[in-house]
Specification:
6 copies of one chain form a homohexamer. In chain A, helix 3 (about 55-70) runs antiparallel to helix 5. In chain A, strands 2-3-1-4-5 form a 5-stranded antiparallel beta sheet. The first copy, chain A, has 5 helices and 5 strands, in the order H-E-H-H-H-E-E-H-E-E. Chain A has a single domain (about 30-155), classed as Molybdopterin cofactor biosynthesis C (MoaC) domain (Alpha-Beta Plaits, 2-Layer Sandwich). Chain A has about 160 residues and is α+β, with helices and mostly antiparallel strands. Chains C and D meet through helix 1, helix 2, helix 3, helix 5 and strand 4 of C and helix 1, helix 2, helix 3, helix 5 and strand 4 of D.
């Protein structure tokens, strides 16, 4: 139980939320990669690619929105620390006939990890695609918003299985 | 093709992004409901519920963050219109042994739908839970961020199958 | 108890926070006035007025910051609705030898009141003064942040006693 | 007079506002604690505690809002520097029969103090409580928004008398 | 002089800033168009067009940034009212051998004009181009940020001469 | 061509936007100065100076807005890094009979330059003046938004010719 308590670092002994104190830590180089999939009903993605092809504004708008959201993670996620991100990148890739795979990589020299920044960037990039294509019909979904990899920090490096 | 072009309303004839002009429309009552699932590795959710139970700050923080994000949707998603939301609500429910189901409902008297507001609220509430429990391990995922229902607007009401 | 529950409109039956649904209401003209006092240790205010007199940037900066904060109330106070403020004004007045009285008035054609907008504007204007004069010493305080008056809305007009 | 001018560091010789240049300073560990009281008319607080008890969303929402506001202090207070806060915490305590005491503690490794961050966090947490209970009646007030303690920095540590 | 005072509507009789009260006005359809030119040293623009051609992310990023900034005008310009923009569009056009002409058009059903929204969108789109090409050298400039046209409102329609 | 590609650092080989990775660089002291001119139709500026003289809120509001915008540059310009600005200052000067010259100076200990911060501050200060005097007529323009000087960083110091 003491171990569990140690794990839920954002809650105090009495269950009250708190921002974890990182002031004793030295900044180290952190990197995280997260992904999300935008999954389309049959036929829709082909139409999107024909009309708003990867070279068009559709993918660029998603990249811009994802980068901007990653930079504002600490405004959106209450207990995230403001971090001086040194880089954010968004990649979008057609996968099979009905999926756009969005990946966000974030880096910082920081006292805490950048997982939430990568996840927030991926989520908002995916939602931006959703918004721009939603007129095709309401059956589009964002699937598997998740961390792929993180490096730096005391807890060591980690990489999702199966990638 | 003309039909496809009509569908991708956020892209101009030449593929350039644009905010859809809603000035000719009258405001009507709009409502949308979206959901997302936070899925935990075996055993983790039980621990979360023991330590940061539904009555604690964990769920409350997710509700606050989701509501605040829904209100800021037009800042995050580039082509969304600023909307005077009349209500945002977030529900969080334990489903089975390894899932927290997050639902966001948004309403407005507006010239355009509130789907993106509901989706953004659900996404940020789910990411807030993720952030507060991520110390338990990196295998947590957000699954199936999607629209459940929308009412109001010219395109008619819609409800996801299987709910 | 049913009456109490009706009063705490921002909490559901089970104690969960919620944004009050205002979609059934018609917009009416709302106005609210709030105030706050910045109270100085003996002698400090005289110095402030000598150096950064009412004609200088000190009061102007507080007015600007108060107006800008009032416009962003719904970003700061989680359950506030985004409101199309039609006016915000900040007045600052020297009162006695050790007090600056800040007043903020907000107006909107809206479905809900503008009390929080007036209070937020007054609070941030007072804190802006505090920030600019805090080098004089740490004994400055903001006192009595409160509503002075509100008009419009179903609950009727109200004016604080003793003013 | 030269001494007074040195004190009002946010105004230039000619009374124009300016952001103090901190680029010559080395970052040191800063901490500040501020408080505010939400004072209720007789009987109201008991009702609030019965309906939206400390374990409910009311206090959690105030804590979230206070933490988020502290992180955005430099957006609200014009001459505040953007600071990489390493921790923000909000405590809320029932004091006597008619007062909720809100305390905000902020920490950073920074070139300037975090007093304004602590004060802004306390103010917005108090206003969030006000918002959620204001339906009980308009006589609630926020009193004594003030600094309790600060440590770090050239001007030395300081603690308010009587605490 | 009375006439001049009427003109400087954002200043009170005593020179204090104020947000103009628009609550007595009925919303009407407003539109404004503004432009800015990004002017390049000889040869630079050709290089930009070769490398980051109009079909690439460069122009798309500027369009996204301009639209997003227009939506946030009331956060940036202190006395602007928050407006429910119904449309924002950014056009970028190569003019001659050394100029990119940026145009922003904004529309709203509002109680006040949308000139500042159009100007802010044009300015930020131009600065976004500047940012992305500034590595080519520091001699790039933004010239003639100005209103081209406005329609709607009591003061009547207006169109810049020479266009 | 390889050389050109090196120059457009914000675009990848395939033309996709990216935030430049600065994590390998050490923070150094950066400073930049930018300017913009607000140019008035004949006679208008004299009226502005008579009514809202340099000692009034007009110039102060522009200074506040410019400082606040400079601090938020990374929110406005998509590929800008969040920077811990150590100082921002805005100067406004009457030049001749029809021009207000706005200058913004920004400084930071950072891994990348502060040119965009200085330009954004100058642009928003100029637009704030524009907003407050636009009731005088629509012929006002912002001219020559440009960098005057930058120091620090690998590419060396630079100063605009003719100043």
């Amino acid at each position: 139980m003491g171990r569990a308590r140690k794990s839920l670092t954002h809650l105090s002994e009495s269950g009250e939320l708190r921002m974890v104190d990182v002031s004793g830590k030295s900044p180290t180089r952190r990197r995280a990669r997260a992904s999300a999939s935008v999954v389309f009903p049959a036929g829709s993605l082909a139409r999107v690619l024909r009309e708003g092809s990867p070279k068009g504004d559709l993918f660029a708008a998603a990249r811009v929105a994802g980068v901007q959201a990653a930079k504002r993670t600490s405004e959106l996620i209450p207990l995230c620390h403001p971090l001086p991100l040194s880089r954010v990148g968004i990649d979008i890739e057609v996968r099979g006939g009905s999926e756009l795979a969005v990946e966000c990589e974030a880096s910082a020299e920081a006292r805490t990890g950048v997982e939430m920044e990568a996840l927030t960037g991926a989520a908002v990039a995916a939602l931006t695609i959703y918004d721009m294509v939603k007129a095709l019909g309401p059956g589009i979904e964002v699937r598997r918003l998740r961390l792929l990899e993180k490096t730096g920090g005391l807890s060591g490096d980690w990489r999702a299985a199966g990638r």
